[in-house]
């Protein structure tokens, strides 16, 4: 099986530069931020050229595009103005990306669900569903993927149950899915190393494989249940090569776009990690 795999790339230089970076690393999938980490819209990504970009990806046989929303969005926050910012920005992001999907290229936008900042997980999950419903009333051209979180601080989405709760309250369920972050799932307390099948069965029972649309491929510096969210390079963390071998040979998971969010130790790190992961396919 051919993996759809690549890394999270810089948008400096715009659409063509993005694609060039992907070619350089030998990728068949990738992610990028549509905005700066603080939420300012990227000037490099000209909306009028988005459709052409989508058509090129499609023609070149790329896997689904998994754009990453900036970390600053917090749909579960206390501050109404900040929640409103996240809603408006997400609508704009969906509008930017919709022509890519309309050009035939499967596209998703991945978000960190949000942090409840002391209001409690139940309230946090509710606020996230409400915020997303407001988004989808005004823009629904691109499904939003909720990322599995490490459970750092007051993060919502740190268990399959919390993610299912958020998704359950979405009016049109076709608009939401899940990104499975390997580092975060271990961090959250799911033993992917010793009980891979059990974790995947839970994922299927609670969320359903059909809702999982992408994977963030990260090894983890810290171990099971650490809630630290520190990525390690592939094979250099607590997950290790046997886990990644299992994952890339799991028919339910290996068909999904796999996005590396590991540190670039050298300009070749991601190219090497992509080649390494491909070499694990039996
Ligand atoms: Zn993320």
Account of the protein in words:
This protein has 9 helices and 11 strands. It is an alpha/beta fold. It has one domain (5-279): Alpha-Beta Barrel (TIM Barrel), CATH 3.20.20. Helix 4 packs across helix 5 (160-168). The protein is globular. The chain starts with a strand and ends with a helix. Residues 68, 112, 147 line the site of zinc ion. One of its GO terms (biological process) is base-excision repair.
**Gyration radius over CA:** 18 Å
Distance, first to last CA: 8 Å
User: In one word, what is the shape?
Assistant: globular
The CATH top-level class label: Alpha Beta
The number of strands is: 11
Number of helices: 9
CATH topology, by name, is TIM Barrel
Number of domains: 1
- Biggest beta sheet attributes: 7 strands, parallel
Helix-strand makeup class: alpha/beta
Low-confidence stretches: none
**What order do the SSEs take from the amino end to the carboxyl end, as H and E?**
EHHEHEEHEEHEHHEEEHEH
What's the CATH superfamily, by name?
A: Divalent-metal-dependent TIM barrel enzymes
Task: Report a brief summary of the structure.
This protein is an alpha/beta fold.
Features:
binds zinc ion, globular, deoxyribonuclease IV (phage-T4-induced) activity, 39% helix, Xyl_isomerase-like_sf, two-stranded antiparallel sheet, alpha/beta, TIM Barrel, seven-stranded parallel beta sheet, 282 residues, single chain, 11 strands
